[in-house]
Specification:
Blueprint (H helix, E strand, L loop, with lengths): L11 E5 L7 H19 L6 E8 L2 E8 L15 E2 L4 H14 L9 H4 L12 H5 L12 H9 L31 H15 L3 H13 L20 E2 L7 E2 L16 E2 L1 H13 L5 H7 L3 E2 L9 E4 L4 E5 L2 E10 L2 E7 L5 E7 L9 H19 L9
Antiparallel strand pairs: 1-3, 2-3, 2-13, 4-7, 5-6, 8-9, 9-10, 10-11, 11-12, 12-13
């Protein structure tokens, strides 16, 4: 029988590698952040567990509250696997921008040129617009037919490369480039364009262009529903009998490049450090990537949000970080780093929190995420360049 949540609340604050910074200000910031994490776990509808990794060069601090598994009470760890949800979109951006650096793709390449089998109405949509969610593509995940299949069989195996077929008969939502609208279809198209440009499967491009250069060990793009061990369990909360474990309730083939990656906080911190700094592409492409427009990630990240190319800018009370958020059944994520990549954070919850499901809890999560940014940056001045 699951233990009561109050009996499995576990507090962790550890360092690995070299000695951690031990300034009184940093300690005070972490203490305030820990209180916020405890409050999230105790909040109505709050996650059974939350873990934050704060990385400064080779130094790493880990804070957590709650548990990775309410059945065993096991504490959360930075090498626990987790569903990354829409932070997977940053990985597809990393692949695309790496190929732009290699001149295998151009930001001005169009769907019509790279994917001529896609609907004629989409032919002028560019890679740049896909990466910045200004394409106007209808969202396949909103298709009643797609949702009906998921509801009937959450483990249904989709042909990931045919997900856009669910909306192929629909018009564009708006003229490409005219406004911002977050769409899961965008990153499916990005992955398909990468495959078309190289003749290499997207999963292999991830390994070649992202995992290997950044030294990622826990990251993969599965097709099935199983979670690799060890993993933080994801839950639906609010059931009278207690949280329901949904860690392996849905398959990943139906989200693929838009949300299917499995990783760990340790790997995610390494990824966003390199990606935000532009380690996988060129300085010229980074300048294009950081052309910011009004637009929020889903769910919204801390502070004021604006959208670049497969990257978001979060202007917080303590300074600027760049990153991405995500949410899926059982999990919510934030990954962010300073623009130079020297400092990074991951913020992982073991339940889904978004504006549609629980706006009050999302507001609390965003406030604690902002406290995490403050702990990351300390009191000695934030990274304020773009």
């Amino acid at each position: 029988m699951p233990l009561p949540l109050r009996l499995v609340s576990l507090l962790v604050a550890t360092c690995v590698g070299a000695l951690c910074p031990a300034s009184p200000a940093a300690a005070a910031d972490d203490h305030s952040l820990q209180r916020g994490l405890d409050a999230l776990v105790a909040a109505p509808g709050g996650p059974p567990g939350v873990i934050v990794v704060l990385r400064n060069g080779d130094h790493q601090r880990v804070l957590s509250a709650g548990t990775a598994d309410i059945t065993t009470g096991r504490p959360l760890a930075p090498d626990d696997h987790t569903r990354t949800a829409s932070t997977s979109k940053a990985f597809s951006g990393a692949v695309a921008l790496s190929l732009v650096r290699e001149h295998r793709l151009s930001l001005d390449d169009t769907i019509g040129t790279r994917l001529p089998h896609q609907p004629r109405a989409w032919r002028k949509v560019t890679l740049r617009q896909l990466l910045q969610h200004t394409s106007g593509l209808p969202d396949f995940s909103e298709s009643p037919r797609f949702r009906g299949i998921i509801q009937a069989d959450p483990h249904h195996h989709f042909d990931s490369r045919r997900l856009l077929d669910f909306v192929a008969g629909e018009p564009l939502r708006f003229t490409p480039g005219s406004r911002y609208r977050y769409s899961n279809s965008d990153n499916i198209a990005v992955a398909l364009m990468a495959e078309a440009a190289t003749g290499v499967r997207y999963e292999n491009l991830l390994r070649r262009e992202v995992y290997k250069p950044l030294g990622l060990r826990d990251t993969s793009l599965p097709q099935g529903w199983e979670m690799p061990e060890p993993y933080m369990h994801g839950y639906v909360v609010g059931d009278p009998s207690g949280p329901v474990d949904v860690s392996e309730a849905i398959g990943m083939s139906g989200v693929w490049a838009s949300g299917g990656i499995t990783s760990s906080p340790r790997d995610l911190a390494a990824f966003i450090s390199g990606y935000a700094a532009g380690a996988l592409t060129s300085k010229a492409v980074v300048r294009e990537q950081r052309h910011w427009i009004p637009g929020a990630s889903e769910p919204a990240g801390p502070g004021r949000n604006s959208a670049g190319l497969a990257l978001f800018r979060y202007d917080t009370k303590c300074g600027v970080v760049l990153g991405h958020t995500g949410n899926t059944l059982g999990y919510t994520q934030l990954i962010a780093a300073t623009p130079d990549g020297r400092r990074a954070l991951t913020f992982s919850l073991t339940t889904q929190v978004n504006q549609a499901g629980n706006p009050e809890l999302l507001a609390k999560v965003r406030a604690v995420e902002e406290d995490a940014v403050c702990s990351l940056l300390g009191t000695y001045g934030a990274e304020r360049h773009s």
